[in-house]
Every structure is written in C-alpha cells, then in structure tokens.
Design a protein that fits this description.
alpha/beta, Rossmann fold, 2 domains, eight-stranded mixed beta sheet, five-stranded parallel beta sheet, 14 helices, 24% strand
Length: 395
C-alpha cells in the first residue's frame, strides 16, 4: 500500500516539539498531512507551526465552524490512510482504551475507518505504571499499532523508557506498517558492510563499502515481516531496531558469525563486501615507517557465500556482485559457480558510498533491471523479487 494521506495527532507533552519535525519529514516524503491537536498540546507548541509545515489549517475544536457540516470528527479521517498520534500521552492512551471521546482528537480516533498508530511519550514511572501497561496491552489487542517508546534521558532528568521515538524512526515505522508482508514467518540472515583485515595494530586491508545497501535490505526484510539477523562489518550506520545485530571485523569473524546462526535461516542474503585476502602474519604492534620496502604475505579468505550455498540443505541464497567491467557476464558466472538462485549485480564505480544505485537481478529466468533509484526503494523491490522466487521454490 502506498501511503498518501496521514492525520497527525498531537497530544500534550514536551515531546510535542518533535511532532513538528515529524510533520516536516512526512511532507518531505510526499504525504498529505492533516494536523489535529489536543488542547493540552497547544501549551507546548503552536498550531501555526503545523499549518506552516503541512499547508493545511490545524484543527483542535470538536465544534470547529470551518467544517461545513459540523462533523470534523468524521470528515477529517475520510480518505486518510492512517492516523498517527505522536506524542501520545498516558491520559490519551487511557481515553482510547475506554472509548472516551471528549475532544476532537479522541473522537476522530474512535470514529475512524483507517489504521491507528500511537507513539507513547511520558515519564518513565508513568510508562512503568501497571495501569499504563494494561492500557498498552489492550490497545495492541484492539489492533492499534504502538510505536516505542524508547529509553533515554527525559525532560524531568530521569533516565528510562518513556521517550518518544525520534521522528526518523517514526517515519520508518509508519512506512514499514504499510509494506506488503511477503516474508512473514521467515528468518532472514543478512551480511553487510566491509571487512577489515589487520596488517598491524592500527593498519589494515579494507574497502570503501558504506553498508547502506545491506542495511536497506535488512530494513526492507523487516518491513516484509521477516525475523532478521544482521551481521555487519564496521560502518557508520545504526542497525534497524528490530533486527538481531552481530557486529564483526574480519572475514573470519563474519564467517563464524554466519555459521553460528545460518542453520535456522530460511533466506541468506550476502550483501557484505568481504575482503578477498588477509595478512598471514599481522604485527601485534604498529610497524614503524622506514626506508625499506614492506612486503605483506597474503592468503585467500574463505568464500562465505560459497561455503553456505554448498551445504547439503542450504537456505535460499542471494549473492551480490560488485563489478567494474563486464557486469552481467561476471555476475552470471559467479551465480552459476556458487549455485545461487539469485545474484544482484551493480557497477562498483557508481554504487559504493552512494545513496542511489542501479541493480540487475540475475536468476534462472534471466535478468531484471532495476533502474537507478535510492537504495531503500531498490531494497524493497529486491525483497519482493526474493519473496516471489522463494515462494515459487518452497511453497
């Protein structure tokens, strides 16, 4: 489902200032955003802020005369794809549980015919209170999607759960909620990023892989309903919150991590840029610079993907081929050599470190070109293709 229109509800709390940034991100993502505020929210942030960001008047009053038929609680959600309440205060969550409708926001949530998502935000003691936990459990049972909260420092100075998720996290969660669940019930193992092979205490052999494609694939698999394990080399990216995350350094580390969890995986997607060689005798100390030529003795690293695909009962294996020439030819040779049902080819000169990429998917049926787009879009298309091939083979 492609999201088009969102009703953004804002309740009272310090986190209301983050809702303005959330509204900006939603609009930037191409969504039509209608703001609705509780009376308490207006004590923390002004309605004019949301009107300027969204381009729509903000509604706060159940009896607002700007709605011709006097039914704002009905009209505002007509045609909406979802209601997202962020922040959702403890009092507002209690209202939802008990069906109280004493203001515009609570009334339109009760009268909605679209999904409701809430992002709790409150003091950690309020969050931990038995009444709040009962309310959260009931909301989940009622089909309301609860996003967060997070743990961290709070406005009151305490530290613990109760912080509203950051706007970027909420946007991710909102988009994920409406992606097709093509991988529900499946376990997906993904490798990402570069490996690092030590030369001495400070130097090593590595490559410029940013990990962006692998992390995008992990997010797309989570969005598709999979249980994801992400094994990653050193990158400057935060792993998806929902993934099991195993950080590694060298190719040997990555192989050991893969072997420790692959037996339970249904699908293995090897996105990582693994170094082909490692240094046989790395120095434990920093090698001092002098006038002599330094000679390194290198040995080949294990081929992680080939070792997994060669198992008697391998998972559904997907490889990546980053090439600088003869892209399809070399990728197809690699696919056949490693007995892969699917390999993803990309031009290393265009893709490394970039936010966009052109991909060619090579499988037994031929090649499928994904024209240049951002890596999140490509990852979603790739996951859809993997799901189709997996379902054809195993179901």
């Amino acid at each position: 489902m492609e999201l088009k229109r969102i009703v953004l509800g804002v309740t009272g709390g310090v986190a209301a200032y983050k809702a303005a940034e959330l509204a900006r991100l939603l609009v930037k993502d191409g969504l039509d955003v209608q703001g609705v505020m509780s009376e308490a929210a207006r004590h923390f942030v002004g309605a004019a802020t949301f009107q300027a960001i969204t381009g729509h008047p903000v509604f706060t009053d159940l009896w607002d005369e700007r709605v011709d038929n006097g039914m704002a609680h009905i009209d505002l959600t007509r045609g909406a794809d979802a209601i997202l309440v962020a922040p959702a205060a403890a009092d507002f969550l209690a209202k939802l549980v008990h069906g109280r409708a004493d203001d515009l926001l609570s009334t339109l949530c009760l009268a909605r015919d679209c999904p409701l998502l809430v992002a709790p935000a409150m003091n950690r003691r309020m969050w931990e209170a038995p009444a709040t936990q009962r309310n959260i459990a009931q909301l989940a049972a009622d089909g309301v999607t609860v996003l967060g909260p997070d743990s961290g420092e709070q406005a009151c100075g305490e530290i613990g759960f109760g912080r509203m998720l950051e706007p970027f996290d909420l946007l991710d969660a909102l988009e994920a909620r409406f992606q097709p669940k093509r991988l529900t019930g499946l376990k997906v193992l993904i490798t990402a990023g570069p490996t690092f092979e030590a030369i001495d205490a400070v130097r090593g052999i590595t490559n410029p892989s940013s990990g962006k494609m692998g992390y995008a694939v992990a997010r797309a698999a989570i969005e598709a309903g999979a249980e994801v394990t992400l094994i990653s080399g050193r990158v400057c990216l935060a792993p998806p919150r929902e993934a099991r995350f195993l950080p590694v350094v060298s190719a040997q580390d990555m192989l050991q991590a893969v072997e420790s969890v692959v037996d339970t995986a249904d699908i293995f997607i090897a996105v990582a840029a693994v170094a082909d060689y490692y240094v046989l005798n790395p120095s434990e100390q920093k090698i001092k610079k002098d006038a002599h030529i330094l000679t390194l003795e290198l040995a080949p690293n294990p081929d992680i993907l080939a070792s997994i695909s060669a198992r008697p009962k391998p998972p559904f294996c997907v490889g990546f081929a980053a090439e600088s020439e003869n892209l399809e030819e070399y990728a197809e040779l690699k696919r056949r050599r490693k007995h892969l049902p699917l390999i993803v080819a990309n031009d290393v000169k265009e893709s490394v470190g970039s936010d966009t990429v052109r991909l060619i998917l090579l499988d037994e049926a031929g090649h499928h070109v994904l024209e240049k787009a951002d890596k999140r879009t490509q990852a979603r298309k790739l996951v859809a293709h993997i799901a189709e091939l997996y379902n054809t083979r195993y179901q």
